[in-house]
Design brief:
TIM Barrel; potassium ion binding; 478 residues; magnesium; six-stranded mixed beta sheet; alpha/beta; ATP-binding
């Protein structure tokens, strides 16, 4: 199951892909991590999907990551007497705390936090931006707006607030319940929706207590403005382009995607590019040329992973969608321009021992033309620092901890193998040589580089680099 690419593929499970056989086919086609969308999955279904993924993992012998995507606050208007109303550009329309069904001039907004936070001049986007309202008056109990664009509003349509920062946190009661459930199910990653500020991560971090890593979804302008702070407090970032494209001008999204990707690469945090990557494959067996280019851009940028949503969850061709994304990524990474682009965007190392060792490992590996860089990692820190360098040489991550290997399945370039704990440095190097041969990364007579932290099993202490020669018996000849 060795991949022929460094970027990872994250596939969403759903009605088209929830059975064990389908999950196995998706993994064989190229899916490295599976996403469970808690907007559509109840706790029983989530637990069943986790069990099926773990069964496939055991049968195929490869660590598979699981990402649970928490819904976040869903802001919606109330209902109308007739189900919907037609509006005119320029007319006034009010959102208030009156629970009566709406009409041509007003509707109930069951979110007092919005009524309290919106200010004059703020935009309110209804139904994914199809209706554009601008606040002209507010008193904390109602928001009077003027219709700027769009002419219709109907029951329970979503509300986006590109200019407004809500005082409430990012976790709803449903989110807290879902978070407890997915942590008990032993998922590897939790994605948090509609993050606005760094403090939105604090409650989830307190609940998680290290049982899963946290991925912040960047989908609001407020999050973009405080991007560096959010990256610092997150374990990974998702560029959630769907809602970004609603709350920001569409033409700004590509630049923001590049900015987020490069900021994450500098920080050494995994970054996932998501939403509508192969959208047409929901109903068609092949993607559009524009979609192929879209995936290619994310790969050229050095994103850690690219994600499929409805394409794999509810589309007619889920396996084909994963296989197509796999082929695109492989071809991009073979392109003669790819190494130069990746090298040009490579960040300067931070002033730490781990970064210095990872930089030295990449430079020595490329200079000496070694077969593979083997990183021994108990917590995942050493593996992530190695991936940050984006080396041309393959990366093999060995860990005695299954959870660590599953988490690292999201990170660029890391082929993760769970192995018994090393007794000492010599044992560790022997394991590196043997597994590199078994996994098809090297043969007898070739060199490899091993990095690790000494003493072993101490987080963040990457401080050892060793060149090893593989003997005829598959073990270190040095």
């Amino acid at each position: 199951m060795r991949r022929n690419r460094s970027v990872k593929i994250l596939a969403t499970l759903g009605p088209a892909s929830s059975e064990e056989r389908q999950i196995a086919e998706l993994h064989k086609a190229g899916a490295d991590v599976f996403r469970i969308n808690m907007s559509h999955a109840d706790h029983d279904l989530m637990r069943e999907l986790v069990a099926r993924i773990r069964k496939v993992e055991a049968e195929l012998g490869r660590p598979i990551g699981i990402l649970a995507d928490i819904q976040g606050p869903k802001l919606r208007v109330g209902k109308f007497k007739e189900g919907s109303v037609d509006l005119e550009i320029g007319q006034e329309f009010t959102l208030d705390n009156n629970e009566e069904p709406g009409g041509a001039t007003r509707v109930y907004l069951p979110h007092p936090e919005i009524l309290e936070a919106v200010e004059v001049g703020h935009r309110l986007l209804i139904d994914d931006g199809r209706l554009f309202l601008e606040c002209i008056e507010t008193d904390g109990l109602m928001v009077k707006t003027r219709v700027v664009a769009g002419t219709k509003i109907s029951d329970r349509k979503g509300v986006s607030l590109p200019d407004t920062t809500l005082k409430t946190g990012a976790l709803t009661e449903k989110d807290r319940s879902d978070l407890d459930a997915v942590l008990e199910a032993d998922v590897d990653w939790v994605a948090l929706s509609f993050i606005q500020r760094p403090s939105d991560l604090a409650e989830a971090r307190k609940i998680a207590k290290g049982r899963a890593l946290l991925m912040a979804k960047i989908e609001k302008p407020q999050a973009v403005e405080r991007l560096d702070e959010i990256i610092e407090l997150s374990d990974a970032i998702m560029v959630a382009r769907g809602d970004l494209g609603v709350e920001l001008p569409l033409e700004e999204v590509p630049g923001i995607q590049k900015r987020i990707t490069r900021a994450c690469r500098r920080a050494g945090k995994p970054v996932v590019v998501a939403t509508q990557m192969l959208e047409s494959m929901i109903s068609a067996p092949v993607p559009t040329r524009a979609e192929v280019s879209d995936v290619s851009i994310a790969v050229f940028e050095g994103a850690d992973a690219v994600m499929l949503s409805a394409e794999s969850a509810a589309g007619k061709y889920p396996v084909d969608a994963v296989a197509t994304m796999d082929r695109i990524a492989i071809q991009v990474e073979k392109d003669p321009l790819y190494p130069g682009i990746i090298f040009a965007q490579r960040p300067e190392p931070e002033a730490t021992g781990a970064d210095a060792v990872s930089l030295a490992a990449r430079q020595m590996a490329e200079t000496l033309d070694v077969a593979v860089i083997v990183t021994y990692t108990a917590t995942g820190t050493t593996g992530l620092r190695a991936a940050r360098e984006r080396p041309r040489i393959p990366l093999l991550a060995l860990s005695p901890i299954t959870r660590t290997a599953r988490r690292l399945s999201l990170a660029w370039g890391l082929h993760c193998v769970v192995t018994e704990d090393a007794q000492d440095l010599d044992d560790m190097v022997d394991k590196a040589c043997r597994i590199a041969v078994e996994q098809g990364y090297a043969v007898a007579g070739q060199k490899l580089i091993v990095t690790a932290g000494v003493p072993l099993r101490q987080p963040g202490a990457t401080n050892m680099l060793r060149i090893a020669y593989i003997g005829s018996d598959g073990l270190s000849a040095v």
